[in-house]
């Protein structure tokens, strides 16, 4: 029996032997997929000492918690299209927001579409696919969803002048704590998302078919339009600056993210920060970090209410819960803000997977799996740590993993060129991590990310260049030991990278430099660099060229002893 089939069979047996009548009758779990926008793993269960996230921490205590999960491109549309199709950006051909994969790349089956084709009722709330052209102005309905996706009406005010400034007037600000009762419609988008998701759970309970419900929360994406009371949890005097607020020595200009979208906000414009490297004043840095942390706790409250509804409706024992984000967000590290780079702070995401009866014992009659925790009353509540998985994994692994854990056969691996293949995965199922308790991390695992640039030097459109303007692509590989990136010539007309035309490189050795602050690319490495990339055989089409490049790299000793 092939290994992929054997693993799927073993996990399926574990799931159906759990006593829940619903699962025993169908052999399939419901799925609740929760996606937070722009959330890095700045939450308690990932070891953050400041951020209060009791509801997510409670979920994590009953889950597999993946500590080294990475997005394939650190921007919303390309990342979401990538992990919902389990194809990498070079296969979806989406690097900006302006193309629909079914038209411009291939008619790829999505994660919810796969569940829909297997008899699930599939539903979408909030930001799941990126809206607009990237999802055919329909969130890929009706291909992916059984019913039209829901978008909260109050989101129409997200970019309007609703933020009260120090002058008492309304602005389009980055920092936007609000009195919810003073907002148009007297609510906020993520509050509406939770209400609609709970309503859909109630309706799904009354049907015979299993459900796949995806809920996309908008925060902590900017602007930080959040209930003002959440700021009280983070007194400004307790908020620290980033530990590495300076631009790394040896950082190539092409790698720098000039955080243009942040600069467009009125409160940031008033600071008169020079472009592209001018630092944000330290006091304002603290305020950005304070608002981000508060936005995370606001999202945690919404997640708590949603998970509590599973208990209220008697669905907790029958529903797999997956919590993740589309990418991270820089909070002043390397002199950068927002996403738009290949650094860990921009590409690393939380990934928490709860499978009832597998990652935790089923709760008994009268017990609750996810009681809601009010952070204002129980701000210091602690939970046991869930099962930590330290392997390096990718968001493209989500599709096959969720399929397998739900009792479905995972999609097959993609061939080297898969533009004409509707159903396949460029990721790998992580089901084995649920079967092997105490297994040591696999040092061979690699995560791949990439980011486009319009030029070698920072420009106003460096964060998010249009496809036609892309001239350089930064291909990055991340192992447990290093992050290695090559910036090479890219032709947007043919979607081809010239891996022999290298503009710049980055190499960070994580044992001594976990923050990726010292680029040793120009410090040599010779045969050791060759050994480093010899591990990458058989992955992406550009890997072999990366390997050849390092095989001929200048000799040195900084990476000796890594392997």
Structure overview:
With 563 residues, this protein is of the alpha/beta class. The chain contains 16 helices and 17 strands. It has helices spanning 3-17, 21-26, 54-60, 76-85, 89-92, 101-104, 111-117, 189-205, 260-263, 266-269, 282-312, 344-347, 398-405, 432-435, 526-533, 543-551, and strands at 30-36, 64-70, 121-126, 163-164, 170-171, 175-178, 211-217, 224-227, 319-325, 330-331, 337-338, 348-354, 387-394, 447-453, 472-478, 482-491, 496-509. The protein has a 7-stranded mixed beta sheet with strand order 3-7-1-9-12-2-13, sandwiched between helices. Mean pLDDT is 89; it is low at 1-7, 16-25, 533-541 and 547-563.
Poorly predicted runs: 1-7, 16-25, 533-541, 547-563
| Rg over CA atoms | 23 Å
The strand order across the widest sheet is 3-7-1-9-12-2-13
By secondary-structure content and strand pairing, the structural class works out as alpha/beta
Task: Give me a quick take on this structure.
With 563 residues, the chain is of the alpha/beta class. It has helices at residues 3-17, 21-26, 54-60, 76-85, 89-92, 101-104, 111-117, 189-205, 260-263, 266-269, 282-312, 344-347, 398-405, 432-435, 526-533, 543-551; strands at residues 30-36, 64-70, 121-126, 163-164, 170-171, 175-178, 211-217, 224-227, 319-325, 330-331, 337-338, 348-354, 387-394, 447-453, 472-478, 482-491, 496-509. A hairpin with a 3-residue loop joins strand 15 (472-478) and strand 16 (482-491).
């Amino acid at each position: 029996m092939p290994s992929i089939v054997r693993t799927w069979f073993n996990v399926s047996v574990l799931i159906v032997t759990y006593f829940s009548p619903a699962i025993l009758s169908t052999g399939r779990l419901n799925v609740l997929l929760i996606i937070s926008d722009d959330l890095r793993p700045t939450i308690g269960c990932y070891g953050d000492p400041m951020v209060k996230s009791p509801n997510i921490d409670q979920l994590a205590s009953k889950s597999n918690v993946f500590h080294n999960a990475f997005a394939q491109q650190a921007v919303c549309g390309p990342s979401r299209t990538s992990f919902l199709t389990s194809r990498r950006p070079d296969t979806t051909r989406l690097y900006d927001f302006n193309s629909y994969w079914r038209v411009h790349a291939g008619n790829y089956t999505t994660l919810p579409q796969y569940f829909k084709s297997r008899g699930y009722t599939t539903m979408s709330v909030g930001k799941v696919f990126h809206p607009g052209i990237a999802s055919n102005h329909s969130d890929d309905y009706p291909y992916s969803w059984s019913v039209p996706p829901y978008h909260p009406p109050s989101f129409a005010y997200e970019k309007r002048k609703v933020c009260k400034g120090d002058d008492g007037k309304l602005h389009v600000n980055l920092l936007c704590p609000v009195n919810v009762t003073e907002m148009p419609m007297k609510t906020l988008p993520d509050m509406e998302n939770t209400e609609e998701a709970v309503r859909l759970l109630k309706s799904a309970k009354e049907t015979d078919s299993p459900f796949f419900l995806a809920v996309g929360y908008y925060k902590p994406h900017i602007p930080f339009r959040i209930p003002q009371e959440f700021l009280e949890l983070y007194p400004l005097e307790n908020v620290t600056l980033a530990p590495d607020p300076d631009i790394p020595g040896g950082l190539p200009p092409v790698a720098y993210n000039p955080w243009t979208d942040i600069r467009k906000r009125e409160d940031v414009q008033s600071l008169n920060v020079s472009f592209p490297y001018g630092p944000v004043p330290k006091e304002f840095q603290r305020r950005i970090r304070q608002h981000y942390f508060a936005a995370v706790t606001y999202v945690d409250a919404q997640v708590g209410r949603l998970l509590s509804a599973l208990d209220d409706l008697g669905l907790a024992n029958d529903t797999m819960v997956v919590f993740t984000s589309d990418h991270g967000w820089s909070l002043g590290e390397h002199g950068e803000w927002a996403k738009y780079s290949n650094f860990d702070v921009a590409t690393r995401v939380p990934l928490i997977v709860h499978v009832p009866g597998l990652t935790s014992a089923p709760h008994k009659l009268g017990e609750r799996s996810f009681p809601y925790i009010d952070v204002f009353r129980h701000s210091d509540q602690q939970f046991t740590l869930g099962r930590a998985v330290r392997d390096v994994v990718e968001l493209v692994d989500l599709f096959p993993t969720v399929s397998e854990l739900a009792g479905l056969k995972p999609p097959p691996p993609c061939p080297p060129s898969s533009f004409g293949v509707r159903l396949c995965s460029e990721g790998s199922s992580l089901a084995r991590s649920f079967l092997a308790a105490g297994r040591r991390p696999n040092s061979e695992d690699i995560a791949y990310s990439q980011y486009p640039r319009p030029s070698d030097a920072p420009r106003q459109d460096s964060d998010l260049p249009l496809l036609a303007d892309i001239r350089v692509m930064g291909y990055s590989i991340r192992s447990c030991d290093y992050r290695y990136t090559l910036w090479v010539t890219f032709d947007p007309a043919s979607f081809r990278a010239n891996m022999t035309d290298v503009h710049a490189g980055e190499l960070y050795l994580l044992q001594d430099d976990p923050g990726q602050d010292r680029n040793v690319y120009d410090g040599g490495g010779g045969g050791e660099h060759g050994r480093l990339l010899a591990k990458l055989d058989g992955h992406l089409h550009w890997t072999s060229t990366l390997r050849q490049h390092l095989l001929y790299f200048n000799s040195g000793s900084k990476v000796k002893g890594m392997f």
